[in-house]
Amino acid sequence: MVLGTLGSTLPSWSAIKEGAVCKKAQQVRVVKSVSLTCVKSGKKLVWKQSLSSSGVPVVVTPSPSPSPSPSPSPSVDPTPTPTPSPTPSVVQVTIPQGFEDLVENRRGIGYAAWKRISDTMQVAENREFRLDVYVGPKTTPHFDDYKGAVGLLARAFPKRDLPPRTIAILFDYQDIDWAEQTLREKLTSEEYQRINERERGQFILGNCDGISRCNGARQQSAPTGLSVIAQGVAPINPYDASAIPRLKTGMLEIHEYFHGMQRVANQNRNLGPNDWPPAWFREGGATWIQNSVVNFRDFDAYEKFQRITCDQECSSMTEADIIEFLTEAKGESIPARYNRWTNYSVGSVIVEALVAIKGQDPMIGMYEEMATGIGFDAAFKKLFGIEWKVAIPILAKAISANNKKS
Q: Which domains can be identified in the chain, with CATH numbers?
């Protein structure tokens, strides 16, 4: 497990303990294998022990530093002396503060981004939202707490608007006709027409292979503000390492609902294709947020899924590849030698780096800014304080270097 710190000068470990006053929020220290974070409690900052997803303290177990074996000496006391426990070494990284030190402190990108979400969600209050879930009569979902997953996502963005109403239709191949009929019944004729127009008439059928499986999912928003999710349910692919965590923990549900949040800022605006962020930002953002929200109390699980996400296209991309991809990707278009899943994989690690620097709010803020017609480059400069063309090689260098680490 890799932990982060915001400073290079470390205080005496003996002065740090749970409940003790600390000076700078988000500092992280590991004391005798226990992770402590500086958080706000009332009107002061104190050290607080992190909790795992099961609610127990997070304990770091780094490899002990090797020490030379002592020379044998005669024992005076016949009673065996117990073997002393090895003193754990403290593993830590420095969290990047901006683009200027992103490459130097690239090892802290993952922890910094995850901690942004974790800190927000641990203090955020539950929010009200309207979500209606319809499940086909012959369909058995892999995950059965859709509202619970969405409730967690809402806490990650406490100041951002949620869709005024969301409908989710879950169906397997046997329930295709039921899903289509349900879509017609739950939407007005205008909503149904607009959503199918945007999906070229394939809002339901587009999630299925036409033979025996419906394992795709998609989201669209109507001019009324209604967000609609069509989610196919098929047997889990045993050869897909991401399938079980993605389908059985609420990640997919969070991913699709988040698309509805992305569209809120653009609702009822006459926008062209250049008024939306590129596909890698949309899908990469939803892929990253599904992982960080589900695993907001468990950095190890978060980091493991992030590696799985980047296991294929993303992990093999060189610095030059990433530069090419981010330079040429516009709207739904990507360089010809990549496939659409690259938007999810490389997009996720790019968004991770951006969140590490500025937090999660720009994931929605970019849509809000682009809805004014200023374009991606200008919106990026406004939110991140740097030209996009200058940021690209920095991001590429940091991410490709992290991909090479053992």
A: 3-62+90-123 (no CATH), 131-403 (1.10.390)
